[in-house]
Design brief:
Elements: H1 10-15, H2 23-39, H3 60-66, H4 76-97, H5 100-117, H6 129-151, H7 157-174, H8 178-186, H9 188-193, H10 213-225, H11 248-258, H12 266-279, H13 283-299, H14 310-329, E1 333-336, E2 357-360, H15 363-380, H16 386-392, H17 395-411, H18 415-429, H19 434-447, H20 462-474, H21 479-495, H22 499-509, H23 520-539, H24 543-554, H25 559-562, H26 579-587, H27 598-620, H28 630-640, H29 651-663, H30 667-675, H31 686-709, E3 715-717, H32 718-725, H33 729-741, E4 747-750, E5 755-758, H34 765-788, H35 791-802
Parallel strand pairs: 1-2
Antiparallel strand pairs: 3-5, 4-5
Amino acid sequence: MSRFFRSTSDTESETDSSDNESFYDEVTSEEEESDVEVEEEDQQTSKKSRFLKGGDSESDMDSDEEFGRKRQVKSQKDKRLEDMHSAAKAIDNGRKNNDWTLISSEFDKLSTSISKATTGFDKIAFPKFYIKVLVELDELIQETTQKDKASKKKVNPANGKAMNATKLKVKKISKQYESMIEQYKKDPEEFMKEDEEPSTPEPIKSVKNERKPVINDISAASSAVVEDGFTSVGKGGKATAEIDDKPVLLRLREVLESRGKKNTDREEQTNILEGLLARSKSSFQKISVLLALIASRFDLTIGSTSHMDIKTWKAVEKEVNLILNIMESEPSFIVCEDAEDLDNDDKDVVPAAGEIIKLRGSIIGYIERLDDEFIKTLQATDPHTPDYIDRLRDEPSLYALLTRSQAYFEKHNLNESISRVIVRRLDHLYYKPEQVIRSIEKVSKDMLPAGVESKLIVADEPSQLIHELCAYLYKQSASMLRTRAMLCHVFHFALHNQFHKARDMLLMSHLQESIHQADVATQILYNRAVVQIGLSAFRQGLIKEAHACLQEIQGTGRAKELLAQGIQQNRYGQQQPSPELEQLERQRQLPFHMHINLELLECVFLTCSMLLEIPGQAQAGPNNKKFISRPFRRLLDFNERQAFAGPPENTRDHIMSAAKALASGEWERARDYILAIKVWDLLPDTESIKAMLVRKIQEEGLRTFLFTYASYYSTLGMAQLSSMFDLPTQTIASIIAKLIWNEELAASLDQVSQCVVLHQVELSRLQELALQFSEKAANLVDQNERLATPPNRNENQQQKVQN
């Protein structure tokens, strides 16, 4: 026998004569040896061939033969049936021992196995012993409950909890098989006779005795798993689920019961629901399947960081519109959140004339989730690519869906849903200019079906539309809705240059006193409204008001974080935030098209600070430590300490150069530096804003000149000042008169000679001491403030490193 096929036992070594024997002799010797092996098999200990893996250990096949066992290949159906029977036996053991924890777990396994085995492409006949298990469990539960009530003894909490859970499951599942349960109760023996016993496959013969048929047996076993015909294969090599002939509502219940369970394929569930939707005929069936299908599509997006892909998002949008379309044509059906579960025994529901049927669901919840996924997609898309613009084109259709749902909620008096959808509409409109609001309203109305319109909001003009939306929310009891509506209204007023109206509205609300108690999204909206008020004041030339508004946000150095437009870099000495907090911060970020330009914001703030700080510094003198804008003064001091100052490169450098030129009385240079900043082009009506800036620089240049050089002159001519600062004589006179009235300048106007008479006032000894004392007190206050705010030094160091 060839050593490649035989076992190396002592008996066989005698028959192995030579390696040079012919092939015919080897075959003959093999037949003789096999007969000897069969006769002496119980007395021999066979070893594994040296050419197989693990030759030092005993073979599995040989060890099976030692203990009188033979290998078997079972089909998938047989394995499933065997698992079901083992679960049923375990339930029977649990019944004998009154172990409801075991019964509950095994019953779950049995129900899951039967659900999988009786559906799909490789389904089997329904095992009738499952009906027997259901009936016996139901009887046992009733019997146990009666015993516990009669004995009044204390029940094990875990056991009682498991029994109650099993009771609910049995009651729920029994509804699906009522007819079969009735048949079993009438004649259990006759019912169980019809149940076919699982056929046991023929065992495969020993590998040692018959080697050639093994290949055929294995191929036959593999073909037993895959039945005749072809099976459609989906993504990842999984077989696609087929829709069986069960009623739509019964199949829908099975899908809903498996939702959320472990190892449930979400994509397969979605495909099944799509097939059920195609088979649905009545309005009740379509609405029920659509509600489940939309929830199933949302389940495909796992985690708070991931976002829904655009294809799925558009499918959900289409299906929500389809639900609204069905309910608009069938007024008998209403989907609302407070409806009770409809116990229809998986049968179709046809409403009678005038009957209203409420289905449990949340249309506004689906729309809010759709809106949130839209924002997430924009957050995850690079704003400098065409993909971002393409995604923004879906906003009108989403806004049209909001308007359509609002009309539906108004029709059925769902007031809470109306408030929630109006807030969403307001969030899409408040930051847009009037032209854009008018455009999105027009496009969305064209998308709506004929006859669908809101009765509460009827305005066409953008400003009136925002007013009506906010006015409706002002009447609601929820304070959060009123607060957000007011902030959106303020932002809209400020965006359209109605500064005084926006400022008065914000001050009258007293929101600044309690905004720290609001949620983070409302705080971000408040910060945006305050910044927009400051920009509105600047556009109208109100420098002091603009600086006062922007100081609250821009002066902190954390504008990017406070406006939710980015995550602030850690300063020196600050603790690194945890990954969870950083993830929450990223989720709060606004989409790029809602951002307020931070460079423009800084430019406006520093320009306002320059126009206020430079004249104030000239008035107070060089040794005075008082300041109007701490960030501006810090930047100016740092710039003056530099040994070499090159030409300005960025916005900040331009403003610092303009400030130094203005302080020395060279207003033309200051004007040129300010006008060279390119960020002014981002503002609407750029030319009028630049003209306003030039006029302000001339006026502040005049004030700075008078404060700086008043001690060197006795009189100044109006005409000379007019030519120096390119201002009319009347403007020069009004500025000087205001300074004299406010006691900022010791002078008088001579109308006859058209000049300014400057009064030299010598200070008394007491006044000099008072000034020295005030300077020392100011220095002490400044030192205390620096000790109280150590991060400012860190900011200074950080600026040194960056520069």
